[in-house]
Structures are given as structure tokens and as C-alpha cells.
């Protein structure tokens, strides 16, 4: 594949990854394109790093690559795991003779894989996952494979980072709106100012050892339920909420 063809493929992936395409669909598209484009890549997947440090495969070209990823995640070793942890590309030209991963390599060979490449995916300097490529033959990945894989890795990093930021922003806005609604309910119910109402919610959160957003969601749900009752003025809509002055 020449430069023009590769550019066309990457542009198409980028174009179809925008708009209303879900993150899962976009990553599946990228994985499929990488499998068809990266020289020597027979199986491709993308893993993301969870907050607890655990890796999870969220897009894969086939079931075999999911099994290979799962073995690495279970053992805590392998090119892809090490690439994410060390934040450096890792390549094995022959897992049959590679001694760097003594537990993973034999199992990968038993599953029919001989070559592997793992690339770290990052956003704003933080590792967010890995692009994992497997070859059925030894020495499947050469310099050209690496160059193309790095380009796909850059696209995957950008896509994951952008979607994660969008998700975080949406969640943050939703949380802010929910707490604002709950504060308004407390203000109206107990005739408090905004600051005192928020302090009340914060105190309930601390006393109950629960997150503020959980308290807010519960109060908003209670208020919504109360409005749907036959007697909307019934004070039972307050549930267990009681205001106590300092």
C-alpha cells in the first residue's frame, strides 16, 4: 500500500469516526482498517486502561485476539501489557524463541500466534490503553508495519482521548445539573438561601458517608415521585429528609 492509499484509509476512518458514531463502532472500524492495512497483522485489538490499572479489550478483529489479550491481562505480562506499563512500543518477532515473557509466549504460540506488536495509546501525556497487533507467522512485522501501526495508534489515541473527554464533560455537566436541582428543592422546601441549601446537602452526604451526587439524585427522585401522587402537597414526598439548623 502506497502513501496515497494509506492516507485515504486513515481519512475514511477519521471521517466515519465523527458524528453520531458510537465509540464502540468507531473503534471497531479502526481495528478492522488496521487489520486490513498493517503489513503482517492478522489480528488486531484495542485495550483501555481502567482507573484501577486493569486493562480491558474494547475492540477486537476476532475472538482469537480477545483470548490472547485476556491471557496477557490475566498473567500481567506480554508485549501489549508491557507497552502500556512502560509506555514504549514492544515487538516480538518470534514468540516461540522470545524469553521476555515466559508464561505468556508459550500460550500465545499454542493459540497459533508467532509475532506480536504492542503500542501505547496516550492522551495529554497519560497512558489510556494499547493497540495490539498479532501475526500468525514469525517476523511478521517489519519497519513498514511499524510505521503504519504507529499511524493507526495515533488515530486511536486521538479518538479515545476525545471521546473520553466528551464523556467526562457530559458526566460532569450532568452531575452539576443534578446537584443544582437538589439544591433548588432544598431551598424551596426549607426556605433557605443557595449557600445554606448546598451546605445542608453536603452535611447529609458527610453524615451518611455517601457521595453528594447520590444524595442529590435521591432527593430529585423523591421530589419527582411526590409530584406524580394524587396529593402533590403531601409532605410524605420528603421521605427521610429533615432540615436541622446549625
TrEMBL record:
The lineage of its organism: Bacteria, Bacillati, Actinomycetota, Actinomycetes, Propionibacteriales. Residues 227-246 have a biased composition (Basic and acidic residues). Residues 224-246 are annotated as: Disordered. It comes from Auraticoccus monumenti. It holds the Pfam family ANTAR. SUPFAM superfamilies: CheY-like, GAF domain-like. This is GAF domain-containing protein. GO terms for molecular function: kinase activity; RNA binding. Residues 159-220 form the ANTAR domain. Keywords: Kinase, Transcription, Transcription regulation, Transferase. It comes from the Bacteria.
